[in-house]
Amino acid sequence: MNKWGAVTMVGLLLGGVGITAVNPQQATAAKTITTQAALNSAIKKGTDLKPSATILSQPASFYTRYKSSLTKNFNMSKKITTFHNHKTYVYVKSPSLKTYTTKAMATWNKVLGRKVFVAGTASKHDLVVTTKNAGTAWDGMNNGKTLTINSNRLNDANYLKNLGNSAKTRSLTTQYKNSLSKYSKLTNNKARVAYYSTVVKNYNALLAAKKSAAPTKTNYWSAIMVHELGHSLGLNHTPYLTDIMYAEKSNNGLTSAVNGKYAWSSAKDPKSTRLMKPAVSSRDVSRAKLGMKLGFW
């Protein structure tokens, strides 16, 4: 008996019938989806924004025929970076980004089971990684040919201190804002003086929680790099804090309420802690695999 609990001897006759070992995980082939209605049903039954195994196991013609629907329903983007047989060469022009880029490339390569992102050179590359002072506009930006990290935030020693994003920090933020609002509405000076200590207490609690939840510099900027490389794989944003492709609002960056599955202005998993290290969720991986099927990489 093997680990599947099936007879391994091929051709063993039992009552004239040949018995062959069967792996139960391979027993059922993916059902072919041949209509838009069937695709809609498969999407509805599946996890939000996560292509199912069935959707990822269709013939090549399926992805051509339903490209528009798949792109919209799984918040995909389009081909923005040049790939050669599912491989792209990344040149890190700014030395300060070498560690973060290397970690990010390794993260995607591991979960996709192949070398998708390969180290390039100044003379041989498809994507250049560099820095630019963008003030407070954004952390990273990827237009398909150049992946840019905001040097202003990268070099700001205080920037990460306020990035702690967990259920606790969000709860304390609400608590602090509510106390501040209440304080501003008090008209009696004695009452204001008495309540001020509550505002200070809530503020200090929030700062402590944010400091505790704040990511390390290496983890955070490596995560930003994983996110930006995700765009090269054809991924738009999602409203899930546990996805590396998370964005606070649906109109941030590449995603828009028009092109995506739906609009959002807050996280769909508000009790979760935001992913701020070089890692990806199963939803990120499934969408990246769909990106390959759609010809984005």
TrEMBL record:
Please give the Pfam families that the UniProt record associates with this protein: Peptidase_M10
Tell me where on the tree of life, at the top rank, the source sits.
Bacteria
Indicate the segments forming the Peptidase M10 metallopeptidase domain, all copies: 210-247
Q: One GO biological process from the UniProt record?
A: proteolysis
Sorted alphabetically, the keyword list is: Hydrolase, Metal-binding, Protease, Zinc
Keyword Hydrolase set for record: yes
Q: What GO cellular component entries does it have?
A: extracellular matrix
- InterPro entries on file: MetalloPept_cat_dom_sf (IPR024079), Pept_M10_metallopeptidase (IPR001818)
Lipoprotein: present as a keyword of the record?
no
Q: Its Gene Ontology molecular function terms?
A: metalloendopeptidase activity; zinc ion binding
Task: Show the coiled coil region(s).
Answer: none
Protein name in the entry: Peptidase M10 metallopeptidase domain-containing protein
What phylogenetic lineage does the species belong to? Bacteria, Bacillati, Bacillota, Bacilli, Lactobacillales
